[in-house]
Input
Amino acid sequence: MLNHIEEQIKALGCTIWELREETTKVWEFYFIRHKLDQNRITEVRTFPVTLYRPLEGDLLGAASGEIAPTDSDSAIQKKLADIYYQASLVNNPAYRLNDKQAAAPALKDVDVAAIAKDFITAMAKVHETETEFVNSYEIFVREITRHYRNSNGVEYTVRYPSSMIEVVVNARNGEHEIELYRMLESGTCDADKLCRDVEKALRYGKDRLVTEPTPALNRSNVLFSTDDALQVYRWYFAFKTNTEAIHCKMSDWKPGKAVAEKMSGDRITLKVVSTLQNSSKDYPIDKEGAEIRDRTLIRDGMVESLWGPRQFSQYLGVEDSANAENFVVEGGARAEAELRKGDYLEVVEFSDFEVDPVGGDIAGEIRLGYLHQNGTVRIVTGGSVSGKMGDVIPTMQFSKETEQYDTFVIPRVTLLKDLKITGIA
Output
């Protein structure tokens, strides 16, 4: 099928193109409490295509579409002709597709049945009570195979596991009940981590039932110990070193630039890694055919290199780049226990939490927090957290210990100092 589509592309007169064959095998399970309600097995195959069209003035048009394996010859020809026409309507500065053939990666053996069994077995081990229990969960285990080729002769195949589990937990207290939702992604099943995450959600649900209003603190140190911290590391630090963000004027970071001035806290070191065990996107070659290499993006608070898609990387003169998926943030100078000393607000549930990647604004509505003051802990809800990354980076601290959240390894706890807290009491 790939060969046939390639022939049709060339028949159009298109000389610059990318073509992929993507096959996804999925085992799905739906449980009510711990009783299987339904399950199914699917296999989907698609052929994403991107066609490029040189235009006057050293411009390059590009457009993408998808061919189905059931498409007739006439349907394929029509789709490709439409895509090629759409490419003529786009006016980008010209750039080159990848022309470096990477060493063929070893194809992984993916046993979707065994991975699915590991998830089911792990969920059966979650400690529950009559008042805190698992309501339902859905398991999706995928074997993804991606075959890529382009008009420069670059070709490769990768295969990797990609799993997701969605869990709903409930906690009751008399006439009151709270429900929490979790979506956890990974490569395969890390049973110990899964149990910890679900049992933590059960505990948070229990605590939500006995909260008191967040007091008007005005300012407080805020400790992040959940995946909300990814907003800081992924959607700020990693985003700011991305070539597309820089080219589009959403970031002014560049190699040799410090992420903040007069830093007295921990200095961040952020790396791209070519492989990350148990990531749901653990592949060594990106979707544009570029080899993903280990590289340090930020070292001790100083930007060292950039990453991103080929188009925008070339615009910035960055040739050895890739559209990476897996990142590691090194731990800080202090242990988690040390960062947990003193007064602070630990927020573990937000109704919404965001760090604006462009301006660095921090904003979140508190759903569940633990207020540590004068040696006591109060369980609070309501109010909001706000601030700006530019103000907190110089003094931010993070633990030596790290935690993996799918494609990111980050410090287990992150302390942002002197954030504004709007209480409701």
In short: The radius of gyration is 24 Å. The chain has two domains: 2-207, 212-425. Residues 191-208 form the longest helix (18 residues). The chain has a mean pLDDT of 97.
